[in-house]
Amino acid sequence: MPAPSQKSLGSAAGLGLAVLSFINLFNYLDRYVVSALFESLKHSELALSDLKLGSLMTSFLIVYTLAAPLFGALGDRRSRPRLIAFGVACWSVATALSGFAGSFVALLAARACVGIGEAAYGTIAPSLLADYYPPERRGRVMAIFFCAIPIGSALGYVVGGLIDVHFGWRDAFFVAGVPGLALAAMCLWLRDPPRGIQEPGAPRRPNDAAPLGSAAPAASLAAEQAPSLRALTAATYRHLARNKPYVLAVLGYAAYTFALGGLASWMPAFLERVRGMSRSEATVSFGAIIVITGFIGTFAGGWLGDYLAKRWAEAHLWLSAVATLIAVPFVWVALTTVSPRLYLASMVGAQLLMFLSTGPLNAAIVNLVAPIERASAVAIEIFAIHVLGDVISPPLIGALSDAASLAQAVKIVPVAVLIAGLIWCAAARAQARTSPRSP
After folding, report:
1. Is residue 264 situated within a structural domain?
2. Residue 197 domain-assigned?
3. Which alpha helices (DSSP H) does 168-217 contain, by range?
4. Average pLDDT, the chain
5. Which helix (H) or strand (E) holds 207?
6. How far apart are CA 344 and CA 290, in angstroms?
């Protein structure tokens, strides 16, 4: 089978984008179904404190971030569809097993295992998409791919909340986890194009152009590549650490993830405790806001970022920075007002503005690094944004809630949003200094 050309990737790229986006939807459904179950878990036979509830998300994220660099290195050198298939199957089984947990430790372990599977998928999928599509289309492609985040997150709240009310929290995990096994099988049909095929002239390793299935026997291949894999991985990470625009973009992403992770984990409980909503109303209403604003904001940001990038090299980063800074007062009002109408208007505005940055930011990150570094760059991004972001925010908000109240604890969220916007301003300036002319 000859190596695919740019023209021959058309149908394969469309299939890949569709499959990977649909998987991303279930990725976030599996991730946030547990947030919809917080109140039931708190009052179940497990009797979990708010700190323990927050730790359920943290256990997943710790494993996720630790496994990401390993899968990033593998994703730059091995079959990406096979690695993704493994990841999807792994997290689906772990989610279903959460429904059998008889103790906090068992539930914590099951949620942690979800992180292994999502690390394989989350690090590799953006790299594969970048080789399916040229740079001028990546903002829109990433918008389509990441649009699955708000839809999947909202479905996690809605599906989890409704199944919980009618059948119990254990069945919610079963419903969320099992469909992923079929998606894992679909990954094996995806094409794995050579790294950098959409950027002629970019450096490639000799084995990148080799057809799938034509490699040397596994044992000899592993023996030949083992020393170079470690050396190449170390060199790649050192090079990324010297890429200032990339580093700043990731640090801003960490503050942004801190804010979104805190909101995603605690808003259903906040609406029930502080705003007096019923459990089903809290999960469904917040889920509806996420899916509507996420869909509109992510698509609008992706298309607007690509349009501006034709004239302005740093457009993706500036769009992310400005939209996030404008979102700060909206977040503050949404979390502090006692008016239901003002809460609704402010939360819709806040989420819409924050989702505007999803496509442009991720397009900026893959464009700021070399094609043969992309899976590693996404792996380091995942590691950093979660270790510095939503690994910390759910248990921190839970601990502050235990010490004071949930109404006071969530006020750290708009501070993180402000920090994210300021860092992305610095990232855009750094990119301007390294590539001053428009493309």
Report:
1. yes
2. no
3. 169-177, 180-187
4. 82
5. none
6. 12
**CATH number of the domain that 412 lies in?**
1.20.1250.20
- Residue 9 is predicted with a pLDDT of 64
Among candidates 118, 99, 105, which has minimal Cα distance to 177? 99
Does residue 5 form part of some domain?
no
The 10s digit of each residue's pLDDT in 225-273 is 444 567 777 788 888 889 999 999 999 999 999 998 888 888 888 888 8
Number of domains observed in the structure of the chain: 1
Dig out the tokens for 242 from the structure: 């010297």
pLDDT at position 253, please? 95
Question: What tokens were used for 340?
Answer: 């239901």
91, 144 contact by CB (below 8 A): no
Q: In this model, does residue 167 exceed pLDDT 80?
A: yes
Please give the residue range of the domain that contains residue 82. 12-192+220-433
Written as one letter, the residue type at 294 is G
The mean pLDDT value for 138-146 works out to 81
Which tens digit of pLDDT belongs to each residue from 286-315?
Answer: 878 888 888 888 888 888 888 888 888 889
**103-112 contacts, C-beta under 8 A, 24 or more apart:** 103/46, 104/46, 104/48, 104/52, 107/41, 107/46, 107/56, 108/55, 108/56, 108/59, 109/59, 111/34, 111/56, 111/57, 111/59, 111/60, 112/59, 112/60, 112/62, 112/63
Write the CA distances from 272 to 215, 326, 374, 395, 427, integer angstroms: 57, 27, 41, 19, 38
The Cα-based distances of 3 to 56, 186, 199 in angstroms read 44, 21, 15
* CA angle centred on 86, ends 53 and 390, rounded to 5°: 30
Q: What is the pTM assigned to this prediction?
A: 0.68
Q: What is the pLDDT of residues 354-378, one digit of tens each?
A: 999 988 898 888 888 887 788 788 8
Spatial distance between the Cα atoms of 379 and 399, rounded to a whole number of angstroms? 29
The answer to whether residue 203 is domain-embedded is no
